[in-house]
Amino acid sequence: MKRIYYILIVALAGSTLLYSCQEDFLERSPLDQISDPEFWNSQSDLELFLNSFYDSFQGWPASGGGKAPTKDEGTDFALEGLNAFGGTFTQRMDGVLNVPGSGGGWNWGNIRNINYFLANVDRVAEGGNMREHYVGEGHFFRAWFYYDLFKDFGALPIITKPVTAEDEDILYGARASRTEVFDFILSDIDMAISKMDHSYQLATPGTRLSKDIALLFKARAALFAGTWEKYHQGSVFEGQTDGSEYIQQAAAAAKQIIDDGHFSLVTGDSSNVYFELFNQVDYAGNPEVIFYQHFDRAIGDSFSNQLWNWPNGYGYTYDASKFYLSNDGLPIAVSPNFVGDETLELIEQNRDPRLAQTFMVPGDIRRIQGTDTLYYEAPDVDNSGTGIESQKFRHIVVDPSVGINNGNVDYIFMRYAEALLIYAEAKAELGTLTQADVDMTINQLRDRVGMPHLNLNDITPDPNWPDYGYPLTDVLHEIRRERVVELFAEGFRFDDLMRWRAHEYWMGERFVGIFATPELQALSNVPINADGFFDPFQNRLSGPDGGYGFDPERDYLIPLPTNELTLNPNLDQNPGW
Known about the structure:
- By secondary structure, the protein is mainly alpha-helical.
- It has helices at about 1-15, 20-25, 45-50, 90-95, 110-120, 130-155, 170, 180-195, 210-230, 245-260, 275, 320, 355, 380-385, 415-430, 435-440, 440-450, 475-485, 495-500, 505, 520, 560-565, and strands at about 80, 290-295, 315, 360, 365-370, 370-375, 390, 410-415.
- The protein is built from 22 helices and 8 strands.
- Helix 9 crosses helix 19 and helix 10 packs antiparallel against helix 15 (about 415-430).
- The longest helix is centred in the N-terminal third of the chain and has 23 residues, at about 130-155.
């Protein structure tokens, strides 16, 4: 019977994602219809219910053979292939979304289902070693689902119980302010932290939610909310604070992870330690990985890393490469070690080793199979659009028991490096960053790859620092650079651009690929700009002079669907829509 009810829970949890708020509450069968005395009897019932929500953590995307994953696709770092133009974040960056009639991300099924869990969890008797932990998981999931909506829509209704047709005050309620919503999210995360065990105390550390994961989620979310409220002050998207309290909470949560001492950076050969961090088939016991998804195609896992082959189906940008310092620790614009970056043959020379372990250039290894080694010779520019393929995430050594189509590479959701970066950025935003803080965070990351330290008293200004539309201290520029280089292609870039209110950096611009040498031109039909670089989005974007057409008075949030505004007249539309 338990298996039957679990299947019902999973089916309902998945199906409600397809329905809008009003349809979800008024037309779908409520989850409380599946409850009966045979469920909510044991800790195992709680675990089974919660297991259905783990699919909401999105690991490797569904893709065909050789389609490389990056959650930064559609930002300034990675452009989708022209045959898939308009997907990912490109529409947001270009400001070409339309108000949807329904759907559009305004989906409340997961929140309704987790509210049902939290409303019924007390039916399981206290006692046992995991009951309180599962209560904590419930609060974590509700915060996680709210945070996803919060980033897209800002202000939201705050709903804390399963809603029925009789709850008209909720069904037709207004949105709470973005600050009130985030305070609610924080309260759920804090509840999760108070109740969950540390990862090392669990039977499956790293793949089951834990106190450590909740702490890093708190640090991540609080940094987002705090810097949003700081940099959006005076705009139509401002919150009710200056963001400093949230930034302090981000710093405190990150510091707790550091002080607890349960995690540390992986170290090794500086020429490949970063590359090898992202292509492992099992992260169990890895000291840096806090939360990951394990894949095993032999037991039916449907999607996993498919970088067993090449090409990628998207391309990294030449603009992204400029964030990487020369190997003497100086910006490329002033470093005597810089030898040029226009071609794939030059771009990685005398640079931060993480560039060579992220970008693919001719001579890199594509595959090692037994005694045979296959080398990368030239990019498929038509496939990538930019001519710069991904080296990061690639599993190049063939396991003879699996063959070349080995997708069994785990996906990292959270790692210790992010906690270090959050702590450094939060302290710098607060104006309290010390050299000791830098040595504990940024310089640990640089030590791993053999890069010179960041010295607060000796920062060389970079003539190519991005123009975010407002002045920024030298140290914040360098911390943002370090965040780019360390977390490249891991899915943080779009959120960073949004929370920093950085539209001046990309609005009206177009990001390009590598220089189109005669040899590469002969292999490609991708447009080329006046400076000779591959320019795949030429004649594709909506803004002036063919650049991104982002509207800073509208496009930082997405619109609510019109049917929700019609059904509930107390909902208001986001600014500019």
